Amino acid sequence: MSIGKFIAGFAIGGIVGGLIGIILAPQSGEETRDMLADKSKEICDKAHDTVSEIQSKADGIVNDMQAKGDELIAKLQEVINQQKTGEN
Question: Structure pTM?
């Protein structure tokens, strides 16, 4: 699953949940607005945390791939140097 689809699903789920909450809410308008403000902040915080976690994992994967790429380049350079010295 792509990150974009996950975040879109997360946002849509939050919106749908919020709308259902409004429709079924037995509170007054002011209480409902306060509840929506709190839930909106909570959803925003969770989304931010999720994005930060995904970004951190992606950074780790990129760093690992870069390190492996550097190792591969070093090994290839070593093989090329061995071939040059063996041919001369």
Answer: 0.49
